[in-house]
Structure formats: C-alpha cells, structure tokens
Amino acid sequence: MSHSVAGEPPSAGRRAAPLTTAAYSAAEWDLLTDLPGRVLVAAASPGPGRPPRGIAAGLAGLDAVAAGRAFDSDLIRAVVTAIYARHDGATVRVERLTDLVDLLAAARAAVRVLRRRADPADSAAYRQWVESVAARVCRAGGTSPSPADRRFLDRLAGALDLR
User: Fold this and answer.
1) How much of the chain is in helix, strand and coil states, percent to nearest 5?
2) For residue 11, is it within any domain?
3) Which own/partner pairs from 96-103 qualify as long-range (CB within 8 Å, at least 24 positions apart)?
4) Is the pTM for the entire model greater than 0.90?
5) Is residue 130, in this structure, part of any structural domain at all?
6) Is residue 12 assigned to a domain?
7) What is the DSSP letter of 53?
8) Is residue 1 part of a domain?
9) Residue 129 domain boundaries
C-alpha cells in the first residue's frame, strides 16, 4: 500500500510517492518495467516451430499488460503506469527485445531484484503477471499453444522461478 513512513495515509490533496518505486535503483526499475514488453514481443515473434502471430496476438499481449492496472499489487500498478508513461509515442527496438537468451537472462535478473527488494506477495504477483502476458499472446485467437510455444512458456516460467 502507498502510505507514509509512519503508516498513515497521505494527507488530503497530496499524494505520496508510491514506496514501490523508491525501493529500486533506476536500472532495477528499468528492468522491471521493460520485461513485460520484452515478453510480449518475444511471445508474438515466430521462432523455430512457433507459428507467426497476427495482430490479435499483439493486442492480447497489450491487453494483458494493461490488465495489470486492476491488480491488487502496488508494484504491478506502478510498473504499468511507468510503462504507459515511458512508452507513450516511443519507438521500440524489436531486435533487442526478441532475443530469447537475453529475455530469459532478464527474467532471472528481475527475480533476483524482486527477492532483494519486493514484498513476497508483490514478487509472486509480478512474476505471474509477466508469465500471463506471454500465455495470453500464445493463446490468442482461441488456439492452443504449439509444442514450441509450450517450451517457450515453460522456459519463461522457469526463468521467473514459477516452476
């Protein structure tokens, strides 16, 4: 929850800065706010044994990211707010975002940051939310994930320390 240091709610007319963002360095915060988009792009990109994705898959991923605004996690809500603030009108470097080895390394790094800095409930919620972004992309259009998609999702879940 976003409360003052004394545990009291912020005074009327003034909003306290969320404690979730203050707990992270700029590099750590960039990692946490970049990861959902990187996962979306990687899940939507064709790969060996993975079918090409259409616009519906990208929209499903964007919807999954936006759904984070309604989560009961201050961390996820702050990440989604930062994503929309940062990427509004910005161009995305797709070549950097779709490398699976780098993506899995970033997911493992995010887990290490969350272990050090986040409340365990926020950590678990963030990791599950990021995984859900990939799952929604892979299941877009009502199709079941291909065996290659399931491998991708399993590797991502492993990197996020969910399995």
Assistant:
1) 65, 0, 30
2) no
3) 97/37, 97/38, 97/41, 97/42, 98/41, 98/42, 98/45, 100/42, 100/47, 100/152, 100/155, 103/38, 103/39, 103/42, 103/156, 103/159
4) no
5) yes
6) no
7) P
8) no
9) 20-159
